Amino acid sequence: MSVHWTSDELMEINAARALTGARNCFVGIGLPSTAANLARATANPGLVLIYESGAIGSKPTRLPLSIGDGELAETADALVSVPEVFNYWLQAGRIDVGFLGAAQLDRHANINTTLVDRGPGRPQARLPGAGGAPEIAANCGEVLIVLRHSPRSFVDRLDFVTSVGHGSGPGDRTRLGLRGRGPTAVITDLGILRPDPATAELVLTQLHPGVTGEQVRAATGWELKAAGTLGTTAEPTPGELAALRALKNAEGGER
After folding, report:
1. Does the record carry Amino-acid biosynthesis as a key word (predicted)?
2. DSSP-based three-state secondary structure for 115
């Protein structure tokens, strides 16, 4: 019997796979939390999830809906203050992976989650804001980014730089004193992009099954380059799909 999946499920499953081997992950709410909790249920059962609210080692049975979701605290191995999360865990370099979303992303994986300019004569659209994202982007060993692929999200120039990825190119993170490697992969509903080692510019490295390079380039607001050898991500397994759908269908979970 054939197994059917959606483009969002392809994105979420591939984002979870990207956490294979990580010891811990500083998790953003939304798509990053979906991926991190799915990873703990599939590819990486020992993954320690750390949330900005101070919940360490949370094991929610459904997808958290906000930083203040009570199940994050109820299922945590430890609860600490927000300053301790940032000072002891994040700024001291104890986090392997930071997982973030974005409203806008540019070619060097810089992130905007603050505001969007809607054009002449229209007010700027206010977004949720920075939260802990700038610190996560600056201090984690590496950063993964997950978001849906469209020209509105993948832009040539950000309306506001909330979190620095690779700045304007190689050497910027070192010049700015940022710890860690910065963004190492961007997982979307069309494929996976990674920074070119020489330019730090995002390039397309893998397509999801059924997606073409032309589709990805049409959904990108700059002239996107592709790797010399373009791969295809593996199809979701029945086990991955079942685990993802169980998380989403749990009482109070994502609908």
Report:
1. no
2. strand
- pLDDT band at residue 254 using 50, 70 and 90 as cut-offs: very low
Interatomic CA distance for residues 72 and 57, integer angstroms: 9
Q: Helices 7-17 & 238-249, crossing angle to 10 degrees?
A: 100
Beta bridge partners of 48: 24
Task: Indicate if the pLDDT at residue 85 is higher than 50.
Answer: yes
Domain ranges of the chain: 7-249
The catalytically annotated residue of 52, 135, 201, 240 is: 52
One of 3.40.1080.10, 3.20.20.140, 3.40.50.300, 3.90.1710.10 is the CATH number of 7-249, namely 3.40.1080.10
Helix, strand, coil percentages, rounded to 5, for the chain: 25, 20, 55
Reduced to 3 states, what is the DSSP secondary structure of residue 207? strand
pLDDT in tens, 180-225: 899 999 999 999 999 999 999 999 999 999 999 999 999 999 999 9
Using CA atoms of 153, 64, 53, 23 in order, give the dihedral in degrees to the nearest 10.
-80
Distances (CA, A) of 108 to 94, 100, 195, 200: 25, 15, 7, 6
Check if 52 is active-site: yes
Residue type, 192: I
